[in-house]
Design goal:
Strand content: 25-35%
Distance between the termini: 35 Å
Helix content: 25-40%
Bound molecules: adenosine-5'-triphosphate, magnesium ion
CATH architecture: 3-Layer(aba) Sandwich
Strand order of the largest sheet: 6-7-8-3-9-10
Structural class: alpha/beta
Low-confidence stretches: none
CATH topology: Rossmann fold
Mean pLDDT: 91
Number of domains: 1
Order of helices and strands: EEEHEEHEHHHHEHEHEEHH
């Protein structure tokens, strides 16, 4: 479905991505793991067209989308939940969700109910302002808003960031529920343990390059992965 080959990306003169190649097949959850500054968010923003200074190829269902503007990429069905959520704090939960569907025109009640069935907390709080939600609820809202647009590929940038372990579990349960519903997901996570648990395949990004890839089950037992990315992960922050 998504095929990224030898992607390079730049911020002005600074090269953030040197050589990123990976694929996502329909129905898979694929994760990119890697430390701070490795180039994970830059990779997502290059795919979604936010970063324009780039080289290499990005194909979506066989079509080269690497030079398309961001709104065209969204209309192809690639929808990103950015790092830091960015919901609208002064709109209600339901208004936030409806905005996610602006490209689709009118949102059906059935679609809203589908989203609410994945995130019952959002239903309970549908009249509440986005800004009054907890961090975890805001993350649910950001994912729900992306889902309203009926993405073909959902890209999630660090959904666990800054959340308490219990809340993270809820978010990841909903990611698993989305996958069961047939959603294809590209997941970015610093928390490698979680990412390897929910994903089918993973790519390790270091200093702008993919250095390792494989089935998550295999990578979980890889000594290098264990020593660098697993076991020592600290949960520093809470909601
Ligand atoms: N707006 C920017 N201008 C210049 N350099 C940037 C910019 N954003 C990111 N970078 C640099 O690009 C590199 C990759 O950053 P990126 O945000 O993609 O990393 P990341 O893997 O998402 O890290 P994190 O886990 O901390 O979110 C880093 O060296 C970073 O300093
Ligand atoms: Mg990032």
């Amino acid at each position: 479905m998504l095929n990224v080959e030898h992607l390079q990306a730049f911020y002005g003169n600074a090269q953030a991505l040197e050589d990123i190649s990976f694929t996502v097949n329909e129905g898979e959850i694929v994760c990119l793991i890697g430390n701070n500054g490795a180039g994970k968010s830059t990779t997502l923003m290059s795919i979604s067209g936010i970063i324009k200074q780039k080289q290499g190829t990005i194909q979506f269902n066989g079509e080269d989308i690497s030079q398309l503007p961001a709104h065209k990429i969204v209309s192809k069905g690639i929808i990103q939940v950015p790092e830091g959520r960015r919901i609208f704090p002064t709109l209600t939960v339901e208004e936030n969700l409806k905005i996610g569907g602006f490209l689709k025109g009118k949102i059906s009640k059935a679609r809203l109910e589908e989203i609410y069935s994945i995130f019952p907390r959002l239903k309970e709080r549908r009249k509440q302002l986005g800004g009054s939600l907890s961090g975890g609820e805001q993350q649910m809202l950001a994912i729900g808003r992306a889902m309203i647009g009926e993405p073909k590929l959902l890209m999630l940038d660090e959904p666990s960031l800054g959340l308490a372990p219990q809340i993270i579990d809820m978010i990841f349960d909903s990611i698993i529920a989305l996958r069961k519903s047939g959603m294809t997901i590209l997941l970015i996570e610093q928390n490698a343990e979680l990412a390897l648990d929910v994903s089918d395949r993973a790519y390790v990004v270091e200093l702008g390059k993919c250095v390792l890839s494989g089935e998550c089950e295999v990578l979980r037992n890889d000594q290098q992965i264990q020593s660098i990315y697993l076991g020592q992960h600290e949960q520093e922050s809470v909601v």
